[in-house]
Amino acid sequence: MRKPARDVPGFALPADLRAQIQRAGYYPALVADVVAAALGSDQADAHLVHQETTFDHDAVRRHITVLVLTPHKLVVVHADDHDDHDRAVATATSEVVPLSAVRGVMMTHVVTSPDSYVPGSLGREVTLTLGWGAVSRLDLADASCGDPTCEADHGWEGTLASDDISLRISADAEGDAALAGRCTSRTPCPPRSAATGEPVSEPAGRPEDTAAVGRLDAVLPSVLTALGSSRYAARPLLPLAPARRAVVVLVDGLGLELVRRRAGHAPFLRAALPAAYRLECGFPSTTATSMGSFGTGLPPGAHGLVGYEVLDPATDRVLNELSWLHGADAGPDPRRWQPEPTLFEQAVADGLAVTMIGPRHFDGSGLTTAALRGAVFASGSTLPERVDAALAALRGSARALVYLYWGDLDRTGHVHGVGSFEWGEELERVDAELARLVGSVPSDTAVAVTADHGMVDVAFEDRLDLALEPALMSGVRHLAGEARSVQLHCVAGAEPEVTAAWRERLGDRATVWSRAEAVAAGLFGDPERVEPRVLPRIGDVVVNCGPDLAVVHSRQTKPELLALVGLHGSVTLDETAIPLLHWPARAS
User: Fold this and answer.
1) Domain extents for the chain?
2) What is the CATH number of domain 214-298+340-457+575-583?
3) pLDDT at site 85
4) For residue 183, pLDDT beyond 60
5) What CATH number does domain 460-564 carry, 3.30.1360.180, 3.40.190.10, 2.30.29.30, 3.90.1150.10?
């Protein structure tokens, strides 16, 4: 008989420890169970999860070490794998050490350019060594008597040091966030530039807190203004240096907080972060909505792409705005669904050569036609192919705008989680190709990099399944939106009861709005600009999940979607904060 999830050993761990083990991505279920078994009924006061990759002469191996501190003991779990007759075998070892037995804690700080050391930084690398006498290291050297002319053999002398475990944490390899909180026992380190060691903050004219300086819908108007357009002079713009040509790269899922957290995997992007603009993608934080904002320069309430899945009032069916399908049937005419002119159409009318580069199936799709119509389409399967296509398009015109889309970072985050090693590896590939692009464009060409949203990893035990919550589905006739941002279309007159039931059930784990409240709060942009044609597409009830919640329906959702680790759609900073990284033309 299958155990309930809460009775499984790994689920006894604190949520943040489980989440870190899950993000590490190294046999998380096994590691969590071994940690929980070693911990027993003791309370976990603090923990550290450290993953490491080592290289043998013929193999790449991963390891994970988990330290958990309780009021009376230290729990150490180490897991690695090896090959046994052509099959993979994982070994997880736990050790429980009474705190009274711990003989020493040593922290070694590595500081580059110590002559310019910044007070409070404590270096870019830390090695933590713990000793309790189980393992000792003997360092030997030739003994001497002090007489420099003596040639007698005086034997050996040495030091015996406890060296049970050592963990090396490097901000340059793992990102500033990996080192934060591990520099001292109480005070986390501020993020610092890998190049200078200085604290990383927004440059002059940009905010030093979490406030955004603009929205995604300002990116293309700002770029087009830099290319000489006067159409957008009356609207808020980002100050970008003039250029004759420009490439705008949208990396799906490249949230600003995520790239800062994993900056060790992206040295090229990391060098540009201090000068990056912090933008807000808009609501909901999902690709279909963001593409509408990016492509039209309008907020969601004006362009009308208001979610991953929305109600089509004309058919009373839910439309998936990515696939542009009502279930298995074709969706509405995308030009009527989103009738406003796109920025690409306006740029072509102004004499620019506009090229869009993406996967072949994007050409002529419903979402492309609704949000991004007007550009000449070029396809490429791999990111290097798309970079090559962008360079070719630039060479073909003296005044050009090239838009390049890349979606594999988002896909990797969904499948493996944004804390996984797979996400870091994909970020490395993106970083390398962006560096090649910026280094290869003509001298009169500017490059801008942005995103459509970020992402959060939500543990599966933190997901509410509506198939098991009949009270929450009472009065609901259509379920739309997505797991992090649910939109409910109610039976006539049932909206107050549905709102009350969801608020009572979810409490402070989510914010539950009526449609009128969500619009008035500006979730879909300026309330005065929300079009009447768009209002009925928005749910009667809008639910925004907090960081530790997702809402699914296991009887209505495909299994492959239920299995996704990384999610987005809500209003947390990790989901809504996106960068605008800009490399101006070398010669305008």
Assistant:
1) 5-100, 102-139+157-200, 214-298+340-457+575-583, 460-564
2) 3.40.720.10
3) 65
4) no
5) 3.30.1360.180
The DSSP secondary-structure symbol of 509 reads G
So what's the pLDDT on residue 23? 76
CB atoms within 10 A of CB 109: 12
Judge contact between 255 and 452, C-beta under 8 A.
Answer: no
Please say whether the beta carbons of 371 and 292 come within 8 A.
yes
166: helix, coil or strand?
strand
Are the CB atoms for 253 and 574 separated by under 8 Å?
no
Question: Between 206 and 126, where is the model more confident?
Answer: 126
Mean pLDDT on 48-72:
78
Per residue in 479-511, pLDDT (tens digit) is: 999 999 999 999 999 999 999 999 999 999 999
Q: What is the pLDDT of residue 147?
A: 63
Cα–Cα distance between 519 and 180 in angstroms, integer?
38
With 0-12 / 13-18 / 19 or more C-beta atoms within 10 angstroms meaning exposed / middle / buried, residue 9 is middle
| H-assigned helices in 328-452 | 334-337, 343-349, 366-372, 383-395, 408-416, 421-440
pLDDT digits (tens, 9 = 90+) for 274-323: 999 999 999 999 999 999 999 999 999 999 999 999 999 999 999 999 99
Q: What's the CA gap between 351 and 356, in Å, rounded?
A: 16
